[in-house]
Amino acid sequence: MAQISSNATAPTADSLPDNLNHLEFDDLPAFPENVPTAPLLRLSLKTLLAGDAGEEERLWKASRELGFFYLDLRGAGGPGSEDLGEVEVKDGGVDGDGLLKDADMLFKLGEQLFALPTEEKQKYDFKDQGSYFGYKGLGAGVLDAKGTKDRNEFYNVSKDDILGTGERLPAPALLEAEDSRVCLASYIRRSHAIVSLILGRLEKALGLPACTLRDLHRLQGESGDQVRWVRAPPSSTPQSAQQQTLGEHTDFGSITILFNRLGGLQVLPPDVNGVPQQWCYVKPLRGHCVVNLGDAMVKFSAGVLRSNIHRVVAPPGEQEQLTRMSLVYFARPEDKILLKALEGSKIIDQAKTTSGEDEEDISAKEWILRRALGRRTGGDWEKAGGTEGSRI
Ligand SMILES: O=C(O)CCC(=O)C(=O)O
Ligand SMILES: [Fe+2]
């Protein structure tokens, strides 16, 4: 593929606003029409998998300008489709419909998990052992520098634990069950395959030697990759309805694959001609995941790629009274990788020269620990910032 130009204009037909009502979740109250929605490009995994140059250009645009996009998973890859992938870039294991099925099963498992008694869930909070895996209770994280408590619960499951390549952490019997581990393993493999596909396309667009990014994110490599369930109960008072449930942040790692059903996720689009924009909802779409880039991609690319600020508020409109749950796969660089601008790309070299910023010597593991634990109650907020700079 020819080098993608940095000022490419992508077609707009598939970006919001668009009539996407056919992609709503029929079993849920409708996402309201009268709230601002974020202009995420809607990319197709099937088209990316086929090596389509136009779709790669849209991926490049989305990854630079907003750092967030929808990915339509339907009909992409799956058993018997290995031949579809571009020869130059191996896309083994991509199965969009399989991933959608895994996500459905994990939504059900998440509901059962959070229904466990609080004392039981609390046993798996490993913060005091210096780990970001396991449970985080309601209000155990902070939203801002003042220490305002969050309004959600998390459960984080380690990739290396599930794939048997790392420490096996204590977990509730529900997650220890063979069926649960098999489903988690499948979800992890399929999410990781999509992450690799995206990294492959981005390394090409950046002009990096083939596999540069993918080799920093090997499935079997020791890393902070995790599956996360996020659950937020409906707000009990009009006052709490105004509060965020998850504070403004950029993601710590490389690529995040997110499944949402109810609204509530918001992104802050970049300033337009120096004019700040308003927070916009990301409308959940059936058959799609939301993909966003994290801080590691900003560091590897010397700021060419974007890790955008986002937050979670109460679901909008008629969805407000429902419990909101989301399912996330966070792909992060392998633990020992230093988060520095990569060598071998003219685009990155040029960005490094222009920015002239000093790079901190920090590994992926240290970065993620500092960021994750710094956002827990009693953590060091100031030191736990990401690549958002003055954007918060
Ligand atoms: O729940 C969501 O929609 C987003 C969650 C999120 O941003 C995160 O866990 O980092
Ligand atoms: Fe996030």
List the topology elements.
Elements: E1 41-44, H1 45-49, H2 53-65, E2 68-72, H3 96-114, H4 118-122, E3 134-136, E4 153-158, H5 159-162, H6 173-176, H7 178-205, E5 226-232, H8 238-241, E6 244-249, E7 255-260, E8 265-267, E9 280-281, E10 288-293, H9 295-300, E11 310-313, E12 324-331, H10 346-355, H11 364-374
Parallel strand pairs: 1-2
Antiparallel strand pairs: 2-10, 3-4, 4-5, 5-12, 6-11, 7-10, 7-12, 8-9, 8-11
Helix pairs in contact: 2-7, 3-7
Residues 228, 230, 246, 251, 258, 260, 265, 310, 312, 326, 328 line the site of 2-oxoglutaric acid (AKG).
InterPro entries: DIOX_N, IPNS-like_FE2OG_OXY, IPNS-like_sf, Iron_ascorbate_oxido_reductase, Oxoglu/Fe-dep_dioxygenase_dom
GO molecular function, one term: metal ion binding
Family: Belongs to the iron/ascorbate-dependent oxidoreductase family.
Oligomer: single chain
How many helices? The count is 11
Small molecules bound in the structure, each named once? 2-oxoglutaric acid, fe (ii) ion
Overall mean confidence score, pLDDT: 89
The coarse overall form would be globular
Rg over C-alpha atoms, rounded to the nearest angstrom: 20 Å
**Range of helix content:** 25-40%
The tally of beta strands, per DSSP, is 12
Structural class: alpha+beta
Unreliable stretches, pLDDT < 50, 5 or more residues?
A: 1-15, 83-89
Q: Strand-residue fraction?
A: 15-25%
Distance between the termini: 37 Å
Q: Secondary-structure element order, as H and E?
A: EHHEHHEEHHHEHEEEEEHEEHH
| Biggest sheet statistics | 8 strands, mixed
Strand order of the largest sheet: 1-2-10-7-12-5-4-3
